[in-house]
């Protein structure tokens, strides 16, 4: 959104009508905010009523300019007027519950909002996306897939169809293989996701389109559709490379780096990632992401000295919870080149670092996973 | 699903080009006080440079 959305002139008219706050979740200074408003997925957009201490709107994921304009107009209307329809009140309550991390209660409230929605309710898409996100985070994956199937025809042809189809497919793929409905649901949701990808009228952001490919590839892998998975991977890479080539600024081109490194690693062609990451490291010398990704690519190429050199550069620039990923990759590099002691020491260093993070950034689950890994080394 | 969420998350890059909107950076207390004073909603983007 930073490279493509917030710079759009179509948002200028809202500039003085809101106060705009950017929260970098890696920055320790924001830990008190994160304790108050847990943010499990990035990006998350919130609109708050600062005076009444109320959540007016919450949206998980990237939004297009038209989506954001609609959300801003909705939020302004709620902020100005206490009066609201039942479905709107339930949606606001669901957003507030989700902001507290109460996903199960939020899902119920989103569902009630949808059940009370008037005909042609303009917020059906956002409520549907919120419902499926809350169900998936609450690990209610069968209801998530079932509700996605029911809601998809109602949001078909809109931008929300992308998240509804893909969230549902992700949930269906995660179902136990013994579930009798699993394959049927995967098939129907694969068809819906493909329909979104192939519909030129749906203006999905390019990085979200990439996420649709990832979901389809995961589903094909999970159901043993090997040929389809290979074809999808090749189509995905071609799409990413075309999008990066069409970028108008280094910032826009770099948006695709994370997706492209994932694709090249998946296709076992990590060497293809090197030139773009070297370019990004030159374009953004203070950003830890290019060297962190170079470390991954060189590790996959078994060039461990180059991988450690890139890891050194990433270590010097990284901060916040993300540093844990840099450290675990570093441990993987040591382990791959046979230096078990250095790998153990690095995981121990990661545990110390994870414990040192302030509340709001510290993850007990992450610490437990690191401790388990160390015990097994 | 996890990969989808991760992909959504990693789609963000730390870039500075946001000329259209005057963002307050990493200061909830200041932004909240400003929104109360101006009596306008407070828009928050939670993101990370990865």
What this model shows, in words?
The complex is a heterodimer of chains A (377) and B (50). With 377 residues, chain A is mainly α. Chain A has 4 domains: 1-122, no CATH class; 140-224, no CATH class; 242-318; 322-377, no CATH class. Chain A has helices at residues 31-36, 65-80, 86-99, 103-115, 124-137, 141-155, 160-173, 182-198, 206-222, 226-246, 250-254, 257-266, 274-283, 289-300, 304-317, 322-336, 340-356, 364-376, and strands spanning 19-24, 44-49, 54-60. Chain A has a two-stranded antiparallel ribbon. In chain A, helix 5 (124-137) runs parallel beside helix 7, helix 10 (226-246) packs antiparallel against helix 12 (257-266) and helix 14 (289-300) runs parallel beside helix 16. Chain B is of the alpha+beta class and 50 residues long. Chain B has one domain (1-12, 23-50). Residues 1-17 of chain B have low confidence and may be disordered.
Task: Summarize the model shown.
The complex is a heterodimer of chains A (377) and B (50). Chain A has 377 residues and is mainly alpha-helical.
Features:
heterodimer; A: 377 residues; mainly alpha; two-stranded antiparallel sheet; 3 strands; 64% helix; B: 50 residues; alpha+beta
Average pLDDT, all residues of chain B: 72
DSSP strand (E) fraction of chain B? 15-25%
- The average pLDDT score of chain A comes to 93
Class of secondary structure makeup of chain B: alpha+beta
Strand order, sheet with most strands of chain A: 2-3
Shape of chain A: globular
Q: Percentage of helical residues of chain B? A: 40-55%
Q: Count of helical segments of chain A?
A: 18
- Count structural domains of chain A: 4
> What order do the helices and strands of chain A follow?
EHEEHHHHHHHHHHHHHHHHH
Oligomeric status: heterodimer
Largest sheet of chain B: none
Task: Tell me the Rg of chain A in angstroms.
Answer: 22 Å
Poorly predicted regions of chain B are 1-17
N- and C-termini, Cα separation of chain B? 19 Å
User: Helix fraction of chain A?
Assistant: 55-70%
Secondary-structure element order of chain B, as H and E? HEHE
The main β sheet of chain A shows up as: 2 strands, antiparallel
**Total number of helical segments of chain B?**
2
Q: What is the CA-atom radius of gyration of chain B, in angstroms? A: 14 Å
User: Which class best fits the helix and strand makeup of chain A?
Assistant: mainly alpha
